[in-house]
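Inverse folding, one chain.
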């Protein structure tokens, strides 16, 4: 099982990331997307919503646009 994570970039473009496993929690989807895009972590990262959203914004992703679709193999 894989999960397709779709998102809108801050410049208006769109993007897609494919990650291993089933991801249905919105916060987990944001964490997986940040990891898939190799976005740098804050040194004091606690993984809460505000920090993950800030990490995505810094990487050019609109956090509220993140959505997931399960993909069967």
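Residues assigned per position:
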């Amino acid at each position: 099982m894989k999960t397709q994570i779709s998102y809108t970039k801050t410049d208006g473009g769109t993007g897609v990331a494919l990650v291993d496993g089933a991801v249905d929690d919105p916060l987990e989807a944001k964490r997986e997307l940040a990891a898939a895009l190799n976005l740098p972590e804050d040194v004091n990262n606690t993984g809460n919503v505000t920090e993950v959203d800030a990490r995505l914004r810094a990487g050019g992703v609109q956090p509220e646009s993140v959505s997931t679709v399960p993909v069967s193999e």
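The longest helix spans residues 26-36. The longest strand covers residues 2-8.
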